[in-house]
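Usage example:
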Amino acid sequence: MSTIDQQLKQSIAKAIQEAFQVDVAIEDIIIEIPKDKSHGDYATNTAMKFSKVIGNNPRVIAQTLVDTIDKEAASIASMEIAGPGFINFKMQSDSLTRVISQVLDLGDRYGYNDSGKALKINCEYVSANPTGDLHLGHARGAAWGDSTTRLLKMSGYDVTREFYVNDAGNQVDNLARSLYARYANIFGQQVDLPEDGYHGPDVKEIAEEIAKEYGDAYLTYSDEVHNFFKKEGIRLELEKLKRDLKNFRVEFDVFTSEQSIRDAGLVEKAVETLDTLGYVYEKDGALWFETTKFGDDKDRVLRKNDGSYTYLVPDIAYHITKLDRGFEKMVDFLGADHHGYIPRLKASIEALGRDADTLEVDIIQMVRLVDNGEEVKMSKRLGNAITLRELCEDVGVDAARYFFVQRALDTHFDFDVNLAKKQTNENPVFYAQYAHARICSILRSSTIDEKAENYDLLTHEKELELLKYIHEFTNVVADAAKHRAPNKMCNYIQKLAALFHSFYGACKVIDNEHPQRSAQRLDLLRACQITLRNALWLIGVEAPEKM
RNA sequence: GUCUACGUAGCUCAGUCGGAUAGAGCAUACGCCUUCUAAGCGUACGGUCAGGGGUUCGAAUCCCUUCGUGGACGCCA
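Running the assembly step on the lines above writes:
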C-alpha cells in the first residue's frame, strides 16, 4: 500500500537526485502534518536538513525542489515555500479520501504493515514468581508487554510472548513451607508461618483447596511432603496467575520453567563453558565470574559457598536457550529494581560468545498506588497489597489497561485508584469509548439507502482533518512498534476521538436533504470506527457499541 | 558515595531521529441540546520547557554541569 507520505518522500528524493545529483535515503526524509493548518496538508524540512550536503542555502534548494517535483506522481495540488525553507504541500483531495476505501476493504487488517520485516523477536514480560498474587508493578508490565507485542505483530514482526517461571530456588521452597503451615492450621495444628513466609490470602486459599482435595494426608512434615506442597503450590499459583492474566486480556505463547532448564543440565553446562573459557575463579569458597571483563562494575558469584547456584546462572542458561531457539532479538521487560542486573546478563551473553546486543531490556519504572491523595505502600508479604484481580474488579479491565499504558514506561507513575474508579470524563478511556459508541449510534439510526459514488463531497475542514489522521494510523502503529511504545497509541486514540467529536459538532451526518453527502459521511464514519476499534484493540481496550 | 531514570501550564501528562507561534485533559470563566448519544463541542485564561553553560542557521529535544525526586548498588530473585 503506497501511502501519501511515502509517495511524497519518493518524489522528493527523486527531485533531489535530478536537480542536485545527490542521493538521499527515503527514510531520512521527514514528512509531517503541520500543526498550523495554513501550512498545508503536509510539510517537509528537507531543504534545511540537506542544505549542507547539497551545498546551497535552504530557500534556493526549496525553490529548485518545488520546480522539479513531479506533482502528478505524488498527487500534489500545490506547493509553497515558507519560513526558513519549509515546503508545504496541499494535496489533491482524492488522495486524502482514498483512505476510506482502503480502510473499509481492510477492516480488522487496517494498520497492518511490514515495517518489522519478520524479525524473529522474543518478548518476555511479567515473569512473576509463582508465590503470590500479581500486584500493580506486574500489572504495568503485563499491560505494557501485551500491548507492545500486539503492536509488533501488527507491524510484521515474528513475535513470541514468553513468561519465565521461577519454579526453583529459595522462594518456591518458602512457598512450600508457607503452604504447609496454612494447611496444617486448617486441621487444627499449631504450625507457625516461616519468618519470611508468604502471608498472602492466595496461599491460604490454595491450602484450603489442597485440604479439600487430599484431606489430611500430608500432615506429617517430610521431604516428600515438602516436595508435594512445592509442586502443588507452583501448579495452583501458576493456574491462578494465568487466570488473572487472561482476565486482563494478557496471554503468552510460551511458559518456560526454570526447573526444566536446571533438569536439562543447562546450568552446569553454562558454568562449564565459562570455566573452559577461563572467566571463572574460586574465592571464599564460592565460584566467581569475571563479569568486569565485560563492562560490569564488579565480579559476580555463580555458585555460593553452600554449593547452590545464584539466580544469575539459570538466567544465563535461559537466555542462551532463547538464542538457540533462533531469536534475532530478545526483549526483557524488567522492573526498575532489576536495572543493575542488566550489565551482568549482557556480560554473560557476550562471554559465551554471543552478541549481547540481541538482548534489550526495557525498564519498567515503579508504580505508586495513590488513594485519596495518600500513597499506599505495597507489601506482597503482608497480604495487604492491591492485586491485579482486585484492581480489575474495582476499575474495570478497560480502564486499568488504558491507565497502565498511557504513560511512557520510563516515567514514575502514580496510579490513582480513586480517579480510576470514578468512571467519569476525567478518565480518558471513556472519551475514546464514547466516540466509538457515538459512531455506532449514528450508523444504527441511519435511514440513508444511497451508496457513496465517490468522496468528492467531503471537503469540510473537519472532514479533511479526520481523513488525514485516519490515514496516519499505519504510520503510528509502525512507529509505536519500533519504539515499543504503546503510549503513543493512547495519544493517537485521544486525538482521533477528539477529531471525531469535533467533526460531530460541526457536521450533521444523516441528512435526508443531502443523501449522497450523507452516504459519503457514513463511509467516513465507518472508516473512523474501524480505525478506532483497531487502535483500542492494540492496547487491549474494548470498543463498545453502546454506552 | 557510585550507577540509572526523571524534572514541561495550578494539577496529571503529551511533544525528545533538532524545525515554523511549546500542545492536550482536569481545574477556572463564558457560550452551545425543538437537530444523528451534552460521558460532547466552542471560546478565554494559564509557560524563565528545574538553573547555568556549550554545539547549531535553529534546542524542551543533543553535550557538559549544578540542584531536586524516584530506584538500584546481596553468595535475594
